[in-house]
Design a protein that fits this description.
The structure holds 2 protein chains of 2 kinds.
Chain A: H1 2-22, H2 26-46, H3 50-75, H4 87-110, H5 126-134, H6 142-165
Chain B: H1 6-21, H2 25-61, H3 77-87, H4 98-116, H5 133-141, H6 144-154, H7 158-189, H8 194-199, H9 206-209, H10 211-228, H11 240-243, H12 253-278, H13 291-299, H14 302-323, H15 329-357
Classes of the chains: A mainly alpha, B mainly alpha.
Amino acid sequence: MNVIIFYILAAVILVCSVLTVTSRKILRAATALMFTLIATAGLYFLLQVNFLAAVQLMIYAGGIVVLIVFSILLTHHMEHQFDLAEPKKAIPAALAAIAGTVICISTVLQFDFTSRLAEQTTAPDVKLFGRAFLNYGEGGYVLPFEVISILLLAAMVAAIMIAKKNKQ
Amino acid sequence: MFLYDFTELTSSIHEGLVSSLGEGLLTTTIEFVIAGIAYLLFFAIFGLFAVYLERKVCAVIQNRPGPNRVGPYGIIQTIADFIKLLMKELIPIKNSDKVLFNLAPFIVITATFLSIGAIPFDKGLQMMDFDIGILYVTAVSSLGVLGILLAGWSSNNKYSLIGAMRSGAQIVSYELSAGLSLMTIIVLAGTMQFSEVVAGQADLWFIFKGHIPAIIAFVIFMIAGTAETNRGPFDLAEAESELTAGFHTEYSGIKFALFYLSEYMNMFVIAAIGTTVFLGGWQPFQIPGLDGFNTVMAYIPPVLWFFLKVFVLIIVMMWFKWTFPRLRIDQLLRLEWKYLLPINLVNLILMATCVLLGWHL
């Protein structure tokens, strides 16, 4: 059963990621991207890392895609359609893409995949997450956590500044 | 008696299937199908009931009889309406993005479906008991807004687009308050798993256990939850008087019915989460010390308790809708960002202090 669900999810991810880059209508591309991200969350659920799956759904599918769709709604008209790329640009792009794929696949295939599954020792619980986020000692991630917070705060302040400038 | 504990019933179904078909693909598939059909039936029946309830509550508040022709007290009215909706023509729209136009109602209804799966109706009557249940429900319920945005954009209609934009801004903002108010209770409960959240309220519900901060969180949750379902007074996304019907202006027949149904099911989801997290889920009303009273209360089946509490919260949400006038978009955003969010953050600190100092009951 797990294998069947894995193949369904993998098929959804593959088809939707191809649709994301080939669709010439931008909102369809965004929708395909959403399905790719949701199916990735499905893979995490299959691996029983529920926290990561929920975060994936919340931040990527619920947050980022909503923002992308929102900005498309503001800026694009429905009939807008991207032109097909000229051959002059398409051929080098295709070559670069194929080279990237070959490098990625050859690297992935070198990895030894046999029985790396470790038994889960501790059940993840909220207290552990809290400690991990805010602990500065052993096994704590307070520094990256705070750095990301400051980065996001700076981005937010910048966005507000840009939005306000036009009104003056 | 299975009404008190559904684990027996569900495990006997599972064992029956395993003994006749063996462990494996077929059994799992049949179990999936049974659960799916059960949820679909619940969707349909509850949807019909909620629409009838809304019309009656609205009628009582506006001092008129409401539906009273089809069947006694108009009970069959919604079934007749449903059949009418099924028979209606699906009007195809020229110059619309057909794929996204047809996809949008399904995204909305699927998001509702996903969130309802994690809610415990009774002991053992729960599709999935995730260890991060509350986080899962908040994550999944945020997907529905994408359907609304797509519906508004693909209709190629200015009313729809404005409705979708309003809805997007509204849901993205109010999600924050709903999430933070639930977080306040996670601090008190110490877990995000629904079954454990419910088990922690066996002696006293969290709204009483956490007294002041819990009550503040509950009020904020009900406001933010009503906003998340796009219902009045926060129904700017459809605002009949200004936008005809907002994001679903161009939809007809069964596709419109899906949007309509999802609104009522979202209301159920919000009421069910409120019940589970603040009002003890399926736990009966208990007062520590009063043993006789507690025994009598525990005699009422948990499923009834759950639906009673959900019913009360739904009535409250309908009361909101028919009492308050619709907010303007700037008032809506000011309410969230200038009032609810700061109150929520302070409340979270207050709750953490209460828990650390042991001030809760």
